[in-house]
Amino acid sequence: MNLEMREPVGETFGALETATLLRELTAGLVGAADLDAALTVLVRIARDSVAGVSWCGFTSLRAGEPAGAAVSDTRLAGLDDLRHGPDSPAMSAIGRRELVVAERLSRETRWPDWTWRARGLGVSAVISAPVDIDEQVIGALNLYAGARETLTPQHQLTAMLMAEHAGLLLAAVRDRARAVAEAGQVDATLLGESVVGQAIGVVMTQRGCRAEEALAVLRGAASSLGIPLREVAERLVNTVSRPRDS
What we know:
- InterPro entries: ANTAR (IPR005561), GAF (IPR003018), GAF-like_dom_sf (IPR029016), WH-like_DNA-bd_sf (IPR036388).
- Keywords: Transcription, Transcription regulation.
- GO terms for molecular function: RNA binding.
- Residues 176-237 form the ANTAR domain.
- The protein has 246 residues and is α+β, with helices and mostly antiparallel strands.
- It folds into two domains: 15-171, GAF domain (Beta-Lactamase), CATH 3.30.450.40; 182-241, Orthogonal Bundle (Arc Repressor Mutant, subunit A).
- It has helices at 15-30, 35-49, 77-80, 89-96, 112-120, 153-181, 188-192, 194-207, 211-225, 229-241, and strands spanning 55-62, 65-71, 100-102, 125-132, 137-145.
- A five-stranded antiparallel beta sheet has the order 2-1-5-4-3, sandwiched between helices.
- Helix 1 runs parallel beside helix 6, helix 2 runs antiparallel to helix 6 (153-181) and helix 8 crosses helix 10 (229-241).
- The longest helix is centred in the last third of the chain and has 29 residues, at 153-181.
- The radius of gyration is 19 Å and the shape is elongated.
- The relative contact order is 0.14.
- The model is unreliable at 1-12 (pLDDT under 50).
């Protein structure tokens, strides 16, 4: 089996790298059109940005039912999708509402069928972190290591921080999508416009408010500054997206 492997990583994320990762998550997720798009961005960023992680997936439950999965590699899709079997690290994390870690699948006795499939795909270790989005949607962020990699306690901390941060951002994406669907409450044209929608998501995440309140904040800033709403939105999104100096 020809699976891509990275070089072993001796050092994992520090404070600066974690802060950069969370900023990248914020910039990527608030710009997503809907929850499915946001989950696709989430797993891509986790795979590409966290050293020592070969693949990433997100397992979803909506209204208590399996709702598919977002994956960074389609070959591993069956590991994240509960429709392929509920006995998995992700379901354990969701059910227990706590981090689940399997440092060596070669010695793992939990989830035997899942572990057999995972090892056949080249997975050597997994971390599953529960993610609370809203009253309808919950899930788990799953980080996978390949044969030449090790998931450390620092990876566990990073997974917990990502899961908590992603939960807030994904809730904002869901709220914004609902607001777009509710005729008359918010200007759907503005919400649908990419940069304004992104800025609304940023304000919702920062203030913990609904989309219509976030839009009012942006409009108030535009009025105070005497500049167009779109320019206010662009400034805010650029500020969130800009990497901090080290």
